[in-house]
Structure formats: C-alpha cells, structure tokens
Design goal:
alpha/beta; eleven-stranded mixed β-sheet; Nucleoside_phosphorylase_d; EC 2.4.2.1; 264 residues; S-methyl-5-thioadenosine phosphorylase activity; 11 strands; transferase; MTAP; Rossmann fold
C-alpha cells in the first residue's frame, strides 16, 4: 500500500499528529535522508523535516534529490509540503495560507533533476502545471471543512538564499507576476514530478516582502509567525491523513511514461 508523506518547512519540525514514531536514515544513491515513520490510526505516514529537526540545514544545502528518492524508496505516492513565504501580493497577508499552483525558479547552484545523463538518461518532463491538481483539490476540501482561509492560487518564486531578497529584486519579481517568495520549493517540486509522486505545497505567509513595509525582516519573525499559525497546517494535515488515499490514480503517477517511467 502506498504512503502519504508530509515535508515540514521552517517552523514545522514535529509530526505531532503521528504515533509510534521512529527515525530512519535512508541510504540513497544521492546521499542519506533522515525521515520519521509513524502511524495515524492504522495508516503509515512519513514525515521529513526539510531543514532538519533543529533547523540546521540552510535552503541551498538541502539534499533535495536524496529526500525525494528516499520517499520513493519508502513507497510514498503523495507528498504535502509546508513552506514559509514572504508575500508580494497585498491580498495575501501574514498568517494566511496560499496553495500555490505555479513557480518561477531563481535558484543558481542546485541540481534539479534525476535525469542528468548519469544514473538516469536524459528526459524533459512537462511542468505546465507543476503541482498535483488531485492533491490540491483534496487540500482545498480539507481547508473548507475546517473553515480555514486558503488562497487557492499563487505563483511562488524560489530564490537561492540563504539571504533574504533585496527591495529591487522584490520589485522585479512583482512585475513578473509572482505572489510569494521562498527558498525551498524548487527543485523539490520538480523532483517529485520526475519521481512520479503527487506533490503540492501549502505556503504560510509569514511577512510582507522586503521593500513592501518599512520594517526590516528577520528569521525570528518568520519562525514566530509559523509557530503562531501552524494549527491551521495541523488541522488540514490531520484531515488529509484521515481521508486521502495516496493510491488514488493521478496523471502524476504516469508523468514519466514517455521516458519509460521512473524506476529505483
């Protein structure tokens, strides 16, 4: 039976809804990944703290390939991730959630594919709609059931980090049509697509981006906002763990069909 996994971003390090937790180190061709396996009722659920359980891994040093490959090794078929973001859209306010549906990649030094001509051949995956629509619909239904405000659309621009963006960069990104900015959703999203795993991300707006207010931005502010509002994540994730079947057939599970599929 396939599994559901949650990837926790900044401020979400503890899989509180799970029982029988135990930590595992998964050895992959791309390095080791640290995950936690647990139960929600009778269901096996996987949790992965993207930055480590003590936030020791900066965005540009996360081993995204090892993380996604490890989830594939553990028969994960669907991933819901959380991300902390700054808002460039005045309608998306701190404390609110955004279910992004597009991204712009501004990273510089990350390996963003399994198909680099080495272990796998060369493949060009369609990313017209990078986030799984089946999973997005399930998240939206969970949010409605819990009366949680969730903006159903948004464009996420991913920067390299670990520094925050300049005011000039934010001005340019707004002109491009980006709504929120973060440092981690790429290449995580595209690697999940290559591995034929359904994937979506719930973004928590922690602040308005640089240059949109007169206040300087701090990491402490981001973490504090996440802690204050993570109950909304917990409610959505709890309902998904109850109702979502990761074996639901979806085009994501056949994304690599033209290239022979993705095989471990």
């Amino acid at each position: 039976m396939s599994k559901l996994a949650f990837i926790g971003g900044t401020g979400v390090y503890d899989p509180e809804i799970l029982t029988d937790l135990h930590e595992e180190i998964i050895h992959t061709p791309y390095g080791d990944a640290r995950i936690e396996s647990g139960k929600f009722g009778a269901k096996a659920i996987i949790f992965l703290a993207r930055h480590g359980v003590k936030h020791t891994i900066p965005p540009h040093k996360i081993n995204y390939r090892a993380n996604i490959y490890a989830l594939k090794m553990l028969d994960v078929a669907a991933v819901v991730s959380t991300t902390a973001v700054g808002s460039m859209n005045p309608s998306y306010k701190p404390g609110e959630l955004v279910l992004v549906d597009q991204f712009i990649d501004m990273t510089k030094n990350r390996i963003g594919t399994f198909f680099d001509g080495d272990r796998y051949g060369v493949a060009h995956y369609d990313m017209s709609h990078p986030y799984c629509e089946t999973l997005r619909q399930a998240v939206q239904q969970a949010a409605r059931a819990e009366n949680i405000l969730l903006h159903p659309h948004g464009t996420y621009i991913c920067t390299e980090g670990p520094r925050f963006e300049t005011a000039a960069e934010i001005k340019a990104y707004r002109m491009w049509g980006a709504d929120v900015v973060g440092m981690t959703n790429v290449p995580e999203c595209q690697l999940a697509r290559e591995a034929e795993i359904c994937y979506c991300t719930i973004s928590m707006v922690t602040n308005f981006s640089t240059g949109m207010t007169d206040q300087p931005l701090t990491h402490a502010e981001v973490v504090a906002c996440m802690k204050e509002n993570q109950s909304s994540f917990r409610k959505i994730i709890t309902l998904l763990a109850t109702t979502y079947d990761p074996d639901t057939d979806c085009s994501c599970h056949h994304a690599g069909q033209a290239f022979g599929g993705f095989h471990l």
